[in-house]
# Entry
Amino acid sequence: MTTMSSTAVEATDTSIDVDFDFPQRKAPVVLSVKDVYKDFRLPTEQATGLKQAFINWMKGVRGYKIQHVLRGISFDVRQGEFFGIVGRNGGGKSTLLKIISQIYYPNQGSVKVKGKLVPFIELGVGFNPELTGRENVYLNGSLLGFTRAQVDAMYDDIVDFAELGDFMDQKLKNYSSGMQVRLAFSVAIKAQGDILVLDEVLAVGDEAFQRKCNDFFTKVKKDPTKTVILVTHDMNAVKRYCTRAMMIEDGKIVSEGDPETVADRYTLSNLEAEQARTRKEQGQKENAEKVYPEGLNAQCPLLRVTPVSGRVSDGTKPFEFQIEYEYDQPGDFYLAISLNDTRRGGITYDSGPKVFRMKKRGHHTVRFSLPLDQFNNGDFTLVASLRKPNTEHPDETDMVGAALGVNSCSFVIRNSRNGDYALLSDRALRFTAQEDAQTVEVLDMGQWKNPDSVERKEEARRAATSRQ
Amino acid sequence: MSLVAWNLVKELKQKVSQHYGYAMTVLKGLVKTDFKLRYQGSFLGIAWSVLEPLMLFCVMYLVFARFLRVSDGTSTYPVVLLLGICSWQFVTDSTNVGLRSIVDRGDLLRKIHFPDYIVVVSATVGALISYAINLVVVLVFALFSGVHFTWRVLLVPLSIIELYLITLGLTLLLATMYVYFRDVLHIWDVLMQVIFYGMPIIYPLTYVTARGGWLAKVARLELLNPFAQTIQDIRHNLIAPQTQPTIWSEFHSWWAKLIPLVIGALLLWLGVHVFRKNTRRFAEVI
# Structure
């Protein structure tokens, strides 16, 4: 009998554990988007005039084309979540936000909102330049559905947050554009709504104000009653604030879940798009002028670095890549490879000019690998050059061709064990305090370097559990 | 029993405020803003809301009553004239502002979800406030001209409500059309002139009917226009029961009397219906 009960206790224990893993699971759904489709009619010709309309009608031209902006979007947001929506420009994010805010209506599907929703879209909530700051706050409050008494209650908070105490009785047209946005943003976030919808707002105000916003978001993230839906292109923000994220491309959800995975997916899709663009540009150039891509020439018409393993690496395994070259001149020749840090700048590592001597002429592919274990998170590019010895100084080499631009290979390292700031991780090197424990206490740094690290999250969860 | 009734009223009141409380808050905010902005930057400020109609009335009084001597022979005619003009001005004010209201507030509609009709209603309410101020000025004129008020004054609010509802319907219709066709603005400008001169406002109806012939018969039809009907009712009941012809005195068959009421009701229904059907698309179109 006793064993029975103890198993029962254990069983409940595990179920509690599962709940801690997904604290949002239990919260009620406050926003439910189901199978939403949205089309827009885009006028192809200027059919605004009667004459043009008549001509179009005679020709049987419709005068517009249908653009499918959203095609079947479904997701739920639960109370207390900080939900990020990312995606490239024109992917339908803003349209989706407007549908969530019930400014647009979907052609198909449904949106259910529970609680008061406060939108902050297209920078500002429609301020009137002829009114004073105070009047605008009250007017906006009423438009957002707050009574005068409710606005009275939050007015001081709004003004404090906007740091515009001395300007509230000035007309809005006398505000600088930064001040206007600051006020609008403060109204949106200090209004006592249940769901806050934010569109591209993280670059509001000066550095001090941004720091304040950062504090606010960090606080809101922990508040289980406030739900935030954030659209942004700032992947650091997604990783820092969001508890869940979703990526939209061409009106569809392509990735949903853990903010880190989604953010990396977004980074990758941008990387690919940029490469596709440069490739296209160069293709056009080649067609037009019959010239070689930048860095290449008749002697060395082909030199290209391509990844063998995926472009997103977790850093635990070496990065594998290959170099394809075409070279038919007599004499020795070498391949030199350098690793560039795209985000931090600078050359991280270089093979040296006379290290890899190639033994085969013609069109060939050689494979290389590079261990990444020592690095923190980062964006890198591998650039290669083909070299031959200098005729006058045999110790030096001349570059014949280089794999630049599209021919180079970019990849990223993303792993929650890594920090983002420095290039090298703690696994590569550490500072050593030349003091005894009385003067300096050495803490475990890995845990504090990255606020989103697994250890850090574990810690936060433990703290939350003990509070309950 | 009375307690039950009282509770019922209370519950009803609560339900109304729950359903329309938000709309009322927004409406108040918008009307207040519009009113504030109208006289902003002027030295006399809000005093203009009284001064402007007062000065306009003086001009009209001089032109029509003194120089042109338009009159039906009674001493109260100048006041009747003023009352007619300011009643019609309510209609033009509210349609002119209301027609553009959806487009003008486009920046707002694209950023916040709120019932769009409030924007149009706030335009008409703004015009209604001006109308109320004008009516006070007219009443002052009336007192000076020695008008004898009768019990019929009590009927005036009914006519004003009717005039407001017809105008609201028309404004909703025009505002919707203006979102799609900007030509409506110019068409309505012309139409307003046609309607204005097609009503016995700056001329007494007797002016036309007294000449006899077919024109006199047609002139009576002017009263079938719901605007003419309401404005004539207001003038008749407020100032001159003896001299102002109304639909009730000019027509004898009951169906003829119903015509302006039916037109007015249709206009209101059409305006509300068309507006509601299109309200979801406004944010996308403008």
Notes: Chain B has one domain: 22-285.
